[in-house]
Design brief:
Helix 3 packs antiparallel against helix 7. It is globular, with a radius of gyration of 20 Å. The protein has 7 helices and no strands. About 5% of the residues have low confidence.
Length: 243
């Protein structure tokens, strides 16, 4: 068995274990409430009651790592795109595509978990009530659509050389969208919390957050590695058939 395949399988096993650890910590180790009124969406103003999060904050242990993974996929797409244009090697094209595929999944999880939480935090509790088209939400949706557009464009181009070149360029152009998502929270007044420091006053929550960030990020890294192996094999097979 090739060494790269063994490394990919090892990553996949570690990712499964990490996911189980994250779920256990999130639902059995992290407390329901730190202290009265310490978990809130935004700093309450005079006369406005605190919006306690109770159990709902547990979704952050998936939401935050998924957002980090989306950022990682943007970075990998940038690296893959630049390196392909410099070297024209198929492995860099495979990296860009794999990053876009997993970025699409990570972005979807980020949007869904964030929306579900927002329905409770500042919506009415009904599905979709928390979506208010504020800058952070809208830019994240644009990034997700950009990943989808890249994959749709790639599948519509039959010529391999042109497909790879446009994919590389697209991967480079998509990368700056995540910094835009990060900066979007500074544009105007937003419902989205600026930080989660208030939730880290309990050591159990801080520990769970750090472990979840590592473990869930590992899940997406393993997914990129699996897709990378598959995409490289597909490209090599197509080249052999064309020869």
């Amino acid at each position: 068995m090739p060494k790269s395949v063994m490394v990919t399988l090892a990553l996949a096993v570690a990712a499964l274990i990490g996911a189980e650890v994250t779920l256990w910590l999130a639902y059995h180790y992290a407390p329901v409430q730190i202290t009265a009124g310490s978990l809130f969406v935004s700093q309450p103003s005079m006369g406005v009651p605190t919006n306690n999060l109770y159990e709902s904050y547990r979704i952050f242990f998936i939401h935050l790592p998924a957002a980090y993974s989306t950022a990682l996929c943007c970075g990998l797409g940038l690296v893959g795109g630049v390196m392909f244009l410099l070297t024209r090697q198929d492995k860099w094209d495979a990296l860009t595509v794999s990053a876009a595929e997993i970025g699409l999944v990570a972005g979807a999880i980020t949007l869904l978990t964030g929306s579900f939480w927002a329905d409770y935090a500042w919506g009415t509790g009904k599905v979709g009530s928390g979506w208010n088209w504020e800058p952070r939400l809208t830019t994240m949706l644009i990034l997700w659509l950009a990943f989808a557009a890249m994959l749709a464009m790639r599948s519509s181009i039959p010529a391999l050389a042109l497909r790879q070149k446009l994919t590389a360029v697209y991967g480079i152009l998509v990368a700056p969208l995540y910094p835009l998502v990060q900066k979007a929270i500074e544009i105007g007044q937003t419902s989205h919390p600026r930080s989660f420091s208030d939730m880290l006053s309990a050591p159990e929550i801080a520990t769970t957050k750090h472990m979840a960030s590592i473990c869930i990020l590992l899940v997406f890294v393993a997914a990129v590695a699996l897709r990378f192996t598959w995409n490289r094999a597909q490209t090599q097979l197509a080249a052999e058939r064309a020869a």
